[in-house]
Specification:
The protein has 2 helices and no strands. By secondary structure, the chain is mainly α. The mean pLDDT is 90. The chain is rod-shaped, with a radius of gyration of 19 Å. Helix 1 packs antiparallel against helix 2.
């Protein structure tokens, strides 16, 4: 492998890593905020203490993992080195 090809692969890796970081950050924060909002609404409607928020956060963890798995799997398939 030539030095230029190695540099291109390294640059591609850096770009993918930054993109993956922001995808993970965005999905995690948005799902957590949405689950807190849904939990708060459930708590106010049914006059429970904080059980709605706690249950919503517990349910949101596997949901975040599933969304990230599918999103990052798609990101990895788009790489030129995996298409060879």
């Amino acid at each position: 492998m030539t030095k230029k090809a190695q540099e291109e692969l390294l640059e591609n890796f850096k770009q993918k890593r930054i993109k993956a970081f922001f995808i993970i950050l965005g999905v995690t924060v948005s799902v957590i905020l949405l689950s807190i909002l849904i939990g708060y609404v459930i708590d106010t409607i049914f006059h429970t203490e904080y059980y709605g928020i706690i249950i919503a956060l517990i349910v949101s963890f596997p949901l975040v993992q599933l969304i990230l798995f599918k999103t990052l799997k798609g990101l990895c398939k788009k790489s030129p080195s995996s298409q060879k």
